[in-house]
Amino acid sequence: MKYLLIGLLKLYRLLISPLYGQVCRYYPTCSAYALEAVQVHGSIKGSWLAVRRVARCHPWAAGGVDKVPPRRTRSPRPPAPVADRSGSPIHQQGA
């Protein structure tokens, strides 16, 4: 699905977007934003970000630079404490 959306967005940018000229109030343009959002976040979240962006793009919008938010990465969990045979945790020194 992701690659289908990317293909459709690239086709839109190639064939339809030039007909409108420079009318977008934001940088990057809405189609470039949508393409990057789908590439970075996948088809579902990227599409949601693109729809939100297009909804903000209207004649009364202030415009400006609006970059795609970076993909959040999960922080690794701290290691579980190691227990000895009696069940009490072993504390490691110097680590």
UniProtKB/TrEMBL annotation:
Membrane topology designation: Peripheral membrane protein
Organism expressing this protein natively: Nocardioides plantarum
Role according to the record: Could be involved in insertion of integral membrane proteins into the membrane.
SMART domains for this protein: Haemolytic
Localization terms from the record: Cell membrane
NCBIfam families found in the cross-reference section: membrane protein insertion efficiency factor YidD
The protein, known as: Putative membrane protein insertion efficiency factor
Family named by the database record: Belongs to the UPF0161 family.
